[in-house]
Amino acid sequence: METIKKSINGGEFLIKETAAEDIFIFEEFSEEQKMMAQACQDFVDTEITPRIEEIDSMKNPDLVPQIFKKAGELGLLGISVPEVFGGMGMSFNTSMLIADIIGAAGSFSTTYGAHTGIGTLPILYYGTEDQKNKYLPKLATGQWAACYCLTEPDAGSDANSGKTKATLSADGKHYVLNGQKMWISNAGFADLFIVFAKIEDDKNLTAFIVEKSFGGITMNEEEKKMGIKGSSTRQVFFNDCQVPVENMLSDRQNGFKIAVNILNIGRVKLGAGVLGGVRTVTSLAIKYSTERKQFGVSINTFGAIKAKLAEMAIRTFATEALCYRAGQDIEDRINSLIAEGMQDSEAKLKGVEQFAIECAIAKVHGSEVLDYVVDQGVQVYGGMGYSADAPMERAYRDARISRIYEGTNEINRMLMVGMLLKRAMKGEVNIFEPAMAVSKELTSVPSFESLDTSTLFAAEKDVLNKLKKVFLMVGGKAAMSLQDRIEDEQEVMMNLADVMIEIYAAESAILRAEKLVGLRGEESCQQQIAMAKVYLSEAAEKINIAAKEAIASFTSGDEQKVMLMGLKRFTKMDLVDTKSLRRQIADFMIEKGHYPFS
Amino acid sequence: MKILVCITHVPDTTSKIQFTENNTQFDKNGVQFIIGPYDDYALARAVELKEQLGASLTVMNVGESDSDPTLRKALAIGADDAIRVNAFPKDSLFVANQIAHIAKSNGYELILMGRESIDFNGGMVHGMVGELLGMPSISPVMKLEVEGDTVKMSREIEGGKEYVEAKLPLIAGCQEPIAEWKIPNMRGIMSARTKPFSVVEPVVEEGNSRVISYELPPAKAGVKLVDKDNVEELVRLLKNEAKVL
């Protein structure tokens, strides 16, 4: 495989090898970015965590708007908004970092994400200069709160099927909105609504910027939810809501594209946005397991508990690695497009679009790591984990939404595979050629050359390259055998997505550890090395299972035999003593008393 | 008016404290450093006074280059410029001499600092600076208002509150609730890198004390529960085991 530098395209990680120095790692954030993260952490620790019960009770309707305003005063609501529009104009990865820290804020992280992401970005990226000048300063400072009205009772994952109508008034000055929107975060206190509706019998949605003051907007009571109870979520009704024609956002029928592109950003940010919560839960589990004594000793002395603590950290380490790797790839692409003369907003959209596959991976991986971590957090707390008096119960409930919103994880899995195949068809990502090569390799005699494993991660990188061949073998075959029907074979799409996700996560973890060793030396990176190794070992097992399921579902006879042999060859790796490595990682964390890797 | 706030660069309050080199050096490995919490309150009050009185606000620290991020955070919170005296802060007198020199050279009228640092907790520097400069030095100050050239302060004393007035220039060792603790805002953080930051060499080389060795407090022993009706046992334990009676 060819080693590439910086110019990687979205999805190309499956066919190319990336050098450690070409990825960005969490540990490289500058003093200024760290200071921003710390300020944000201080905001969470002082304004949110002590009042989390009160926030979730929703008894005081002014509380969240007050906290929201405070976030605005600190500049946290305008991180991605350029300075000319009253924001901070910070880089893409800085906005990921802030979303990461706010992730520890429970319900408020949804309030924050809905406002700064889907609420603000449509105007930033698609608005006219007038629209930007009028609305962005209010949104960036928290003077106004925004929400995003896409979902309808019968239009969830199939967002473009929404029934909300926009009709041009007789005098041609207004669009009159009528319809019903559902699960609208921040609806209760929003001043501005990004609304998607269809004009006449258009096939696609059109987006509008709707001020609450336009009238004709009513709402149901707050939804009673499983978690993120302090985040306002309501049904919103538009009854002859008069929207001036100049408040159409972008062109007619461009709404679906806006929705999709904004969601790409939302997805990668959600990946990072789970991290604050994940770290907090892991650190709480470490502390509790130290304090909790059974059979006369702290429960953190038990292997079963150590394995959990270590595994929580290992997966967190991988999510951190892949999110900030993707974030920097996006940022680099944006900067290079701007340098080529593209307009700022367009460059940002194109940069994110290029890495839409990685955005979907970040969303799925992040939300599933979050769910894993809160589940184990409850388990470490035992009976106390089930009590609403301890923090794990809330964390467990709050986490669950992440696998649902910003596109369900199933939709995201379909999307990442579908997009890769589409790009391959267009010749944008050359997967068919390497897939053919792998196919040839299946029928050839395996190489008996022994690998030089004297350099760090040489063996692991060899495994990774072989895992990529698993994807090329199974994905290539699926595309050829199933052709257009692949979209209907959703189970195969899920399997292929799992292979993609695990390859990206394992590679990111290894590259992060490798880069860190380069910065700090091998001696002080023992835990990171161990985490990367354990992650890869688990990823290989998961990939084996997913690939086997896929092979069984669409091949038979000799072809199946050949592929299974190939799978065996490509997933072969030396046995890793994960138990000892997990113990080593857990002991290190117990000594530190918290998640100490970022 | 010219205000000087002296800040310490100290381990975060949750840091695990360890020593090296036969218990003669503090182990900085893996320790996060912060602005001393009491100094943070002094700084917060100074930022309020700056806005209220249109004063200038300088922040200083005696420390090595690893203190720079801490000083830049003070700039992010609202100080106009920063001075670092490039030296390891050997002891209180050494630090006080540096502060006195900077204060004298630049003519600061109000010098605020924390009531004490949270690493060595000497609580002596404000008094020493007062002595070196011949200025009044008041500590711990919990409220501070400036009216013309008069500073009105209050401090908690045994069983009550004491109200103190003094003329500028003066030195105050501060503590909460003198001001609301401030989180730097994003714009402040971004502007910190463009604010003046000077590094100067120390005026005297030596302090008048040296650390012989450090020792951690004994680990907390387990809790013993005594039945509420068994006062005699409680007294016996307090006398014979805890040896506090």
Automatic annotation (TrEMBL), chain A:
* Domain Acyl-CoA dehydrogenase-like C-terminal, chain residue ranges per copy: 466-569
Q: Does the keyword DNA damage apply?
A: no
Q: By its UniProt entry, which Gene3D superfamilies does this protein fall under?
A: Acyl-CoA dehydrogenase/oxidase, N-terminal domain (1.10.540.10), Butyryl-CoA Dehydrogenase, subunit A, domain 2 (2.40.110.10), Butyryl-CoA Dehydrogenase, subunit A, domain 3 (1.20.140.10)
Classification via PROSITE patterns: ACYL_COA_DH_1, ACYL_COA_DH_2
- Where's the Acyl-CoA oxidase/dehydrogenase middle domain? 147-241
> Any idea which GO molecular function terms this record carries?
acyl-CoA dehydrogenase activity; flavin adenine dinucleotide binding
Give every Acyl-CoA dehydrogenase/oxidase C-terminal domain span. 254-416
Reactions catalysed: a 2,3-saturated acyl-CoA + A = a 2,3-dehydroacyl-CoA + AH2
A UniProt-annotated Pfam family: Acyl-CoA_dh_1
Q: Which SUPFAM superfamilies match?
A: Acyl-CoA dehydrogenase C-terminal domain-like, Acyl-CoA dehydrogenase NM domain-like
InterPro entries from the xrefs? Acyl-CoA-dh-like_C (IPR049426), Acyl-CoA_DH_CS (IPR006089), Acyl-CoA_Oxase/DH_mid-dom (IPR006091), Acyl-CoA_Oxase/DH_mid-dom_sf (IPR046373), AcylCo_DH-like_C (IPR036250), AcylCo_DH/oxidase_C (IPR009075), AcylCoA_DH/ox_N (IPR013786), AcylCoA_DH/ox_N_sf (IPR037069)
The record's keywords, sorted A to Z, are: FAD, Flavoprotein, Oxidoreductase
The keyword Flavoprotein is annotated on this UniProt entry: yes
Q: Which residues form the Acyl-CoA dehydrogenase/oxidase N-terminal domain?
A: 30-143
User: What cofactors does this protein use?
Assistant: FAD
Which family, according to UniProt?
A: Belongs to the acyl-CoA dehydrogenase family.
Name the chain's protein. Answer: Acyl-CoA dehydrogenase
Organism this protein belongs to: Rhodonellum psychrophilum GCM71 = DSM 17998
UniProtKB/TrEMBL annotation, chain B:
Q: Which domain of life is it from?
A: Bacteria
Stretches assigned to the Electron transfer flavoprotein alpha/beta-subunit N-terminal domain:
23-206
UniProt keywords (A-Z) are:
Electron transport, Transport
- Output the InterPro entries linked to this UniProt entry: ETF_a/b_N (IPR014730), ETF_b (IPR012255), ETF_beta_N (IPR033948), Rossmann-like_a/b/a_fold (IPR014729)
Q: Which CDD domains match?
A: ETF_beta
Gene Ontology MF term list: electron transfer activity
For this record, the Gene Ontology CC terms, alphabetical, are: cytosol
SUPFAM superfamilies given in the database record: Adenine nucleotide alpha hydrolases-like
Electron transport as UniProt keyword:
yes
What family does the entry list? Answer: Belongs to the ETF beta-subunit/FixA family.
* Name of this chain's protein: Electron transfer flavoprotein subunit beta
Protein source organism: Rhodonellum psychrophilum GCM71 = DSM 17998
